[in-house]
Here is the input.
Amino acid sequence: MARRIATPIERLTELTSTLLGTRRPPALEEVGIAEIDHLGKNFHEMGAQLDERTRELIESRIREQHKESQAEQLEWLAITDRLTGIYNRLKLDTVLQAEIDRGRRSERHFGIMLLDIDHFKLINDSYGHQTGDDILKHLAQLLKAGIRGTDTVGRWGGEEFMVICPETDEQGLLNLAEKLRLAIDSQTFPVIGKLTVSFGVSANQPDDGISDIIARADKALYTAKHLGRNRVEKCPTLLH
Here is the structure.
């Protein structure tokens, strides 16, 4: 009798250890003692329920991770320019507004530069739109590599790009823009060879909205184009 009781109890102990692991325990053979047989069945059912619950939790977590991945992908698509792989205008607007708000709170300097590829229409007309697209992608990567870690670069539209530069005054903007201009000027681009870019820069003013700082940078860019292209200019007067 003692052995009939001891053996199933030892087996129950093994099943308990199994439950602490990750495997579903096998069914315990009946020994003819109602209480022990009932306890064995309960252990087996508990193991099955734990196994099922574990499976459900794993599947639920996989679904959550899939949703998170989809959400991250959708967010990335919403703020990324499809052609160049850098930020798009929506993201630039968001960053620019954040910098304007921060500047008003802390009176810190920041600035932007607008840059436009010189004679881009002629490139498209002469070499085709695929070459034009390749030039845009190549330039985007040059800009991304040439800016500081705190700066934000994106495609503003067409052949025009924007760089947002926190903690930067007007002279700092001019220096950084000139550095980028020289880097581009020294490059040899596929198919076309040399390429030049014109820059217009603008530092923030205390009462700026997005349209104000962009208008000044755009005017500076127009000045750079008017004075012969392949140069950096600032806006000569404040526009309010």
About this structure: The CA atoms of residues 93 and 106 lie 20 Å apart. The radius of gyration is 33 Å. The chain has two domains: 2-77, 89-234.
